[in-house]
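Task: sequence design from structure.
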């Protein structure tokens, strides 16, 4: 089979070197590996960047069912979180910070959902019907926790769900940080 032309979303060799150890470690069932893992990751990056629906993925990429299988498996087994955590540590170190964050910032964004979406709410402030992403990031803006709710959930109501998760996963984030963050949320 001839080599396909690359997409702007394809991993460079340097990027693949960072990602490969995480996706190679995954044993995604007894079936034979039909597609190189790099091509699966490239397909996922294509979907993420273009917003194309699974079934409309270009034919020169692996079939959408296989790509979705890996995506779901890597989500369930924590591969994405491990990869994100490792890349965040590398960026923090390169920027002259400690590898683990000592402060975080919590904010949210309401996004429209498809008409058929089962769970959605109405954010009256933004006038958006859909869902809300609550993101806890470090001081460099790197993702720590992502929490999804319906759009009608206020930031102050999501905070009690997000903060205990963050305290468990990132013990370096001290109680004072939480108090200040919670007060800021309640004052909005």
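Answer:
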């Amino acid at each position: 089979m001839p080599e396909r032309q690359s997409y702007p979303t394809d991993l460079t060799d340097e990027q693949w070197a960072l990602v490969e150890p995480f996706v190679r470690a995954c044993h995604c069932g007894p079936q034979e590996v039909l597609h190189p893992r790099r091509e699966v990751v490239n397909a996922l990056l294509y979907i993420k960047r273009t917003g194309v629906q699974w079934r409309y993925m270009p034919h020169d990429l692996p079939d959408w069912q296989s790509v979705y299988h890996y995506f779901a498996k890597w989500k369930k087994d924590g591969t994405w979180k491990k990869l994100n955590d490792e890349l965040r540590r590398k960026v923090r170190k390169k920027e002259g910070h400690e590898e683990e964050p000592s402060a975080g910032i919590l904010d949210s964004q309401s996004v429209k959902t498809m008409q058929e979406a089962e769970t959605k709410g109405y954010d009256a402030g933004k006038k958006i019907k859909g869902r809300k992403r609550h993101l806890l990031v470090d001081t460099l803006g790197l993702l720590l926790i992502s929490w999804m709710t319906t759009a009608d959930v206020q930031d102050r109501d999501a905070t009690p769900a997000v903060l205990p998760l963050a305290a468990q996963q990132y013990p370096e984030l001290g109680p004072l940080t939480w108090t200040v963050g919670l007060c800021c949320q309640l004052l909005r």
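The CA atoms of residues 60 and 146 lie 32 Å apart.
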